[in-house]
Design brief:
This protein is mainly α. The chain has helices spanning about 1-30, 35-55, 65-90, 95-100, 105-115, 120-140, 145-170, 175-195, 205-245, 245-260, 265-280.
Length: about 290
C-alpha cells in the first residue's frame, strides 16, 4: 500500500505540473512572451533537463535504429503544442483545458480507424459524453474567446490523439525517459528553427518572464514527465491514468484563483460530462486508452 500511495502522490505532482501549464503560459503571454519563443524555451529546457536526469542516473538510451520514429513523434507533438498554445492565447485557460482534455475520446476514434480497435458500448457512451460536454463548454464560453481559438485547440486534440496512437508502436521496448527526451529534443529543434525563421525566439529579459519560462520548462514539462513515468512503474498505467484525471481540476482551480476565470453553469455541466467520459474510458478493463502527455 505504501508503494501505491507513493505512486498516487507522484502522479498528483505530475498533474500539478501539467495543470499549471496553461496558467504559466497565460502569465507569460501577459509578460510579453510570444507563442513560439515560449514553446521553444519550454522544450529546450524540458528536454535538456530530461537528458541531465538520464545521464546522472545512468539510464539506457534508445538505439539509433529507433531514432527516426522518435523524431517523427517529436514533430507531431510540435504541431500539437503550437496549435494548443495559439488557441490558449485566444481562449480562457479553463475552456482551452477542458476542450483539450477530450483527447482520450478522439484517440478512441483514431484507434478505431487506424488500428481497427472495437468500439465497445462503454467507448461509444464515453464519446457521446465528451462530445456533448465539449459542445456545452465551448458553446457557453465563446464570449470569452473566439471560434478560431476553439478550432485551434480542437486541432491540437487531433494531433495529440495521433501522437498517442502512433507512440504505442514507437515506444515499445524503449527506455521511457530517454525515449521521451529524444522525442522532445526533436520538438524543441523544430519549434526553435521555426521561431528563428519567423522573428526569433528572444524573450523579454526581465525577472517575471524568465521565471515563468523556467517554471514552464521544469515544473510543467521535465518534472511532470519524469514523475508520471515513475508513477506508471510504481502503480501501473491504469491507476496512473485514472489518477491523472485530476489535471483539469487543478487548472480550473488555478485559473479561478490566479486569472479570475469563472465557468458558467452550462460550462460546469459540460466539464462534468467530459470528466465522466474520460474516467469511464480510464476504468475500462484492459483499456488501450493512453496515459496522456509525453
Amino acid at each position: 500500500m505504501r508503494r501505491i500511495t507513493r505512486g498516487l502522490l507522484i502522479v498528483f505532482v505530475a498533474s500539478l505540473g501539467y495543470g499549471a501549464l496553461p496558467i504559466f503560459a497565460k502569465l507569460a503571454f501577459a509578460a510579453g512572451v510570444d507563442v513560439l519563443p515560449l514553446l521553444a524555451w519550454r522544450f529546450l529546457l524540458g528536454s535538456g533537463s530530461l537528458w541531465i536526469f538520464v545521464v546522472a542516473t545512468g539510464r539506457p538510451r534508445p538505439p539509433r535504429g529507433r531514432w527516426n520514429g522518435l523524431v517523427l513523434l517529436g514533430l507531431l507533438y510540435a504541431f500539437n503544442s503550437v496549435c494548443y498554445m495559439l488557441g490558449l492565447d485566444r481562449l480562457p485557460a479553463s475552456v482551452a483545458t477542458l476542450v483539450l482534455f477530450s483527447y482520450p475520446a478522439m484517440t478512441v476514434l483514431l484507434s478505431r480507424f487506424r488500428l481497427g480497435e472495437r468500439l465497445t458500448p462503454r467507448r461509444i457512451a464515453a464519446l457521446a459524453l465528451t462530445t456533448i460536454g465539449c459542445a456545452l463548454t465551448v458553446g457557453a464560453g465563446l464570449g470569452g474567446g473566439d471560434p478560431l481559438g476553439v478550432g485551434l485547440v480542437m486541432l491540437a486534440v487531433v494531433f495529440l490523439a495521433a501522437w498517442i496512437v502512433r507512440s504505442h508502436g514507437v515506444f515499445a521496448g524503449l527506455p521511457p525517459i530517454s525515449a521521451t527526451a529524444t522525442a522532445l529534443t526533436s520538438t524543441a529543434v523544430a519549434i526553435s528553427v521555426t521561431g528563428l525563421a519567423t522573428g526569433g525566439i528572444g524573450v523579454p529579459l526581465a525577472p517575471a518572464p524568465l521565471l515563468l519560462l523556467g517554471a514552464i520548462g521544469l515544473f510543467s514539462t521535465a518534472i511532470p514527465i519524469t514523475a508520471f513515468l515513475i508513477g506508471i512503474q510504481w502503480i501501473g498505467p491504469g491507476r496512473a491514468a485514472t489518477a491523472a484525471t485530476m489535471e483539469p481540476a487543478v487548472t480550473l482551480a488555478l485559473a479561478a484563483a490566479v486569472l479570475g476565470d469563472r465557468l458558467s453553469a452550462g460550462q460546469w455541466i459540460g466539464a462534468a460530462l467530459i470528466l465522466a467520459g474520460v474516467i469511464s474510458l480510464r476504468l475500462e478493463p484492459r483499456s488501450d486508452i493512453p496515459d496522456g502527455h509525453p
